[in-house]
């Protein structure tokens, strides 16, 4: 989003429409359509996390969307956390249902109901399953496409059960690691914090969260990892025979990622010309545009097809744009849509056995030898990924303010601190890291700064309270 | 399912559980869980149809699951076809909704609402989109896993809009062709018929349907292609400017395939020992079982790992079963789960540079030279696919009875015909093809035979009325 922060919201809405990612003109607030181009970004992004989960022993499965009221209400804290935002199905045809059915807001209860049937003895553990599904929240707040939806079209939720507390702890670590790698693959910098007690997932022992910072300086939660302890296991009777013949309840974790990761790819990397997509999620990684000079059209088209076939064969997502419009319009279209590399093929280059490459991320144009095509493309892709990450890191870091480690011994100091935090949040925006002080770590403080406490985070070996205005 | 027809239903329920495909013990009738193994079969099967659709210019997208009541009710015939089986969301939290929301039973109405926003002029056409989503029917009939569900977990629905009637007709042909190829890839024989007027899709001009025949002799509808004409287009105002500057409404088609294709793979190919999976959808295509003789364990394990790595590298879905249980139990497990090829590696074979292959479909065991591993695997896979198809064809054909082309001029003849059809359906079961006679082609006749009229089908150049007992 370049340097302009003020109009981010407008820019974001605009790009979703113009780059054909998501159409929000559906007649239900908070429900929209993933358009084909957006759908592909979603597909490639979630393919990355699917592979990471598969490689670490997670199994993809698919659980029902409807949850009977009594099942959802079984875990007391959990239902309290959701009861105002659950959609209820009350009728089948004209017939009132005996038991109301909830549209899943998340799937702890249906999955743990099934786990009870699967867990008898310690050798049945661990269970590590995940699904990628739609979930629903009756949002009363202002909705935003891919950020705050009533139908969350893409929720990747993983659920695990273990024989020991230590195994569950290790699973939390594994999950954090997977998410770190995933966001890194997408060039999305994050701040990892332990959410405060008053903001943890309903029913969890504790919640670890990934927040990123959007170009308007507000943070967005884009991933969470929960250690559920034995809370749900006791409610759902996930009791098993231990190795030494005793009985215990399973130790559980769960962790999720949603459409917000797509919103973040768009928001963090884009600029005033449109999308800038990391090559690994770009629906079109390379667009080939023949420059058709009169009388030499055939030379350019033949070369374009040759290059297209070479790249296609190597598995690149490549497109030959042979529309009958001026090259300049094609350039704009593909810059808007964020294709990482553009290849221009004109008669002079072809004669000199050169190929002109254009990088969407930096706007650089340069030539390579025709013989070096594959190396040139591979190197450029790697360089693009690196540059995209560096830029995003730089911008996110510029939004982080680390406060000095002063002792806040008396109330005057605390008031000064509050004023200081409020000032930074108003002017520089972003995240303020306040040296950890247990006297500050409460809801009263959160209220006084008129912002959110993200939680406790570590930075250079020190503990901080991270605060920010959030989405 | 071998030769036993009587206990198909029991066999089917049993195999879903034992082969870990689908767990139906969820506390809502008609809602269940795709277990990891079943999920993978689903994934590979739908990957095949996705590729076929992508290659023929269809774009995958994702539309909302909730449909406002007024939108669903817009096309009169359409809603009449569904109103008894629609689930209604009436509340968000404790708040009654202003407009009731339907869980999509199918997505004509939401998709065509959006198409209105996308179609202005003939160059906007054709539009060919599809999605793979969950849909819902409040079934009052007996539900059956993957066959008759309340949550249809997998519905691949394609929707198209065209500038001319002819284009829509051609689209119907393309769709039929895609489905033909798809079912052929899975070795599922089908009967294609034009559904009778009284059984076409609500709102369509006509419906073409794919039925297969299950081992119990009942038919199952596993794919439909609808020509919608301009019915929906007029309701949803899909008006566009034609090439010659006039106005017209779009011509539309839609076509769908569901979880029933998974049920068919299981039902049509399996036998008394369990699943027999076509290699292209088998989660494990090749299982390697080292035969560990005392003192020679290392030789077998090393060779097993070597073979595993060779096959893995070539892209096969291969598993080395190194569990500490007897080989016989492993054999049974993987025969139950339908792995197409088993490789047994014992010390004597290894010494002789031989590899023993076992084919799940025929039960044959044979040796190949170690050096011929890849060729041997490829040839065997091809042969398995061929044999699976042939067997399924044979069985389905054995269920088809073609009646003589007698003229049924008077009522006595018609009554004799009815008796004859009833007798065949009771004894031989399957599909009866009755030479087309317009006097027979009505609901009264359907009632009299106490079975279903599938529709009109062609066989050896003649037209028949196809009738059967259906799922």
Automatic annotation (TrEMBL), chains A, B:
Superkingdom in the source lineage: Archaea
SUPFAM superfamilies per record: C-terminal domain of ProRS (SSF64586), Class II aaRS ABD-related (SSF52954), Class II aaRS and biotin synthetases (SSF55681)
GO cellular component, one term: aminoacyl-tRNA synthetase multienzyme complex
GO biological process, one term: prolyl-tRNA aminoacylation
One Pfam family, short name: HGTP_anticodon
EC nos: 6.1.1.15
InterPro entries the UniProt entry points to: aa-tRNA-synt_IIb, aa-tRNA-synth_II, aa-tRNA-synth_II/BPL/LPL, Anticodon-bd, Anticodon-bd_dom_sf, Pro-tRNA-ligase_IIa, Pro-tRNA-ligase_IIa_arc-type, Pro-tRNA_synth_II
Main localization (coarse): cytoplasm
GO molecular function, one term: proline-tRNA ligase activity
Keywords: Aminoacyl-tRNA synthetase, ATP-binding, Cytoplasm, Ligase, Nucleotide-binding, Protein biosynthesis
Gene3D superfamilies: Anticodon-binding domain, Bira Bifunctional Protein, Domain 2, C-terminal domain of ProRS
Catalysed transformations (reactions): tRNA(Pro) + L-proline + ATP = L-prolyl-tRNA(Pro) + AMP + diphosphate
The keyword tRNA processing is annotated on this UniProt entry: no
Aminoacyl-transfer RNA synthetases class-II family profile domain: residues covered: 36-278
Subcellular location: Cytoplasm
Function recorded in the entry: Catalyzes the attachment of proline to tRNA(Pro) in a two-step reaction: proline is first activated by ATP to form Pro-AMP and then transferred to the acceptor end of tRNA(Pro).
Entry similarity comment: Belongs to the class-II aminoacyl-tRNA synthetase family. ProS type 3 subfamily.
Domain notes: Consists of three domains: the N-terminal catalytic domain, the anticodon-binding domain and the C-terminal extension.
Classification via PANTHER family: BIFUNCTIONAL GLUTAMATE_PROLINE--TRNA LIGASE (PTHR43382:SF2), PROLYL-TRNA SYNTHETASE (PTHR43382)
Assembly information from the UniProt record: Homodimer.
Protein name: Proline--tRNA ligase
Origin species: Methanothermococcus okinawensis (strain DSM 14208 / JCM 11175 / IH1)
Gene, per the UniProt record: proS
């Amino acid at each position: 989003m370049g340097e302009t922060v003020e109009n981010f919201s407008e820019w974001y809405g605009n790009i979703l429409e113009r780059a054909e990612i998501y159409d929000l003109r559906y007649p239900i607030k908070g429900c929209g359509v993933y358009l084909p181009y957006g759908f592909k970004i979603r597909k490639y992004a979630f393919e990355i996390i699917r592979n990471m989960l598969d490689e670490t022993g997670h199994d993809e499965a698919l659980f029902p969307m409807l949850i009977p009221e009594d099942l959802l209400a079984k875990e007391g804290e959990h239902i309290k956390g959701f009861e105002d935002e659950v959609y209820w199905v009350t009728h089948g045809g004209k017939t009132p249902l005996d038991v109301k059915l909830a549209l899943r807001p998340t799937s702890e209860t249906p999955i743990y109901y099934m786990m009870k049937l699967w867990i008898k003895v310690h050798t049945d553990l661990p269970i590590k399953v995940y699904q990628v599904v739609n979930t629903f929240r009756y949002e009363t707040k202002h909705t935003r496409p891919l950020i705050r939806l009533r139908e969350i079209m893409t929720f990747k939720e993983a659920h695990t059960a273990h024989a020991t507390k230590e195994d569950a702890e290790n699973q939390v670590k594994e999950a954090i690691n997977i998410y770190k790698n995933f966001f890194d693959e997408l060039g999305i910098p994050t701040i990892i914090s332990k959410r405060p007690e008053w903001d943890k997932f309903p029913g969890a022992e504790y919640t670890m969260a990934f927040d990123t910072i959007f170009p308007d300086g507000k943070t967005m939660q884009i991933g969470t990892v929960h250690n559920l302890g034995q809370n749900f296991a006791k409610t759902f009777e996930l009791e098993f025979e231990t190795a030494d013949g005793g009985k215990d309840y399973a130790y559980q974790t769960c962790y999720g990622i949603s459409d917000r990761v797509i919103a973040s790819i768009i928001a963090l990397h884009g600029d005033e010309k449109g999308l800038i997509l990391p090559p690994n999620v770009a629906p079109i990684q390379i667009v080939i545009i023949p420059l058709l000079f009169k009388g030499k059209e055939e030379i350019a088209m033949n070369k374009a097809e040759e290059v297209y076939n070479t790249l296609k064969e190597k598995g690149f997502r490549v497109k030959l744009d042979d529309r009958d419009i001026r090259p300049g319009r094609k350039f704009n279209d593909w810059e808007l849509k964020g294709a990482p590399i553009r290849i221009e093929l004109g008669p002079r280059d072809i004669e000199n056995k050169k190929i002109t490459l254009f990088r969407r991320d930096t706007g650089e144009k340069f030539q390579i030898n025709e013989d070096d095509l594959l190396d040139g493309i591979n190197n450029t892709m790697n360089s693009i990924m690196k540059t995209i990450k560096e830029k995003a890191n730089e911008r996110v870091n510029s939004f982080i303010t680390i406060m000095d480690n002063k002792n806040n011994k008396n109330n005057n100091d605390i008031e000064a601190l509050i004023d200081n935090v409020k000032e930074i949040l108003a002017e520089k925006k972003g995240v303020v890291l306040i040296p950890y002080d247990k006297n500050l770590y409460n809801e009263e403080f959160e209220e006084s700064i008129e912002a959110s406490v993200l939680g406790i985070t570590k930075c250079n070996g020190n503990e901080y309270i991270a605060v920010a205005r959030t989405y």
